[in-house]
Amino acid sequence: NAAACVDPPAAAGIATGASHSCARFTDGSVRCWGRNIFGELGDGTSTGRPSPAAVPGLSGVVDVTASSSGTCVVFADGVVRCWGNYNGPLLTLNPSAPIPELSDVVELRGGNSHFCARLSGGSVRCWGGNGRGQLGNGSPNGDSMPVPVAVVNLSGVTKLAAGNEHNCAIVTGG
Question: E strands, 4-130, where?
């Protein structure tokens, strides 16, 4: 059987949440494992898995990131899809439709309960929990945002990092 002799794809990226992990492979697929209380494994269930299992329906993934209880991926065309608890109050057990208000995403990072995306033009948009103002949009702390909002007074971003309830960026010129 020739199919049995094909080497599996190699891992090309990994993301870890509070109790789950997901790996991106060179063939553009994603596999996740760990606890799955919020659907963070993307397999349509809330059943945990001790070993990696494919997230159905994904191909062409170029980046994967995780929050404490959610997972998001970026596709080659800059579109983002997420699952689990990725936008504050709502949960989804399968990869979502493309996240609105996002295009040309080149980098994606997840914090405790939020995600931030760097766009090709150097701007940043964030969504999810905002308990400490981590979305950077000037809204009152505690106002979670289910869709991405622009980070104010930030441009020329070349690298992005997300922490528990904060974010950092490197801008043009270092």
Answer: 11-16, 20-25, 30-34, 49-54, 61-66, 70-75, 80-84, 105-110, 114-119, 124-128
Query: What pLDDT digit, counting tens, does each position of 43-88 carry?
Result: 999 999 999 999 999 999 999 999 999 999 999 999 999 999 877 6
| pTM metric for this prediction | 0.90
Any idea what DSSP says for residue 7?
A: P
Residue with tokens 């980070």: 151
Q: Are 139 and 145 in contact (CB under 8 A)?
A: yes
Are 34 and 11 within 8 A, CB to CB? no
The full length of the chain comes to 174
How far from 51 is each of 22, 35, 67, 84, CA to CA, in Å?
A: 10, 11, 19, 18
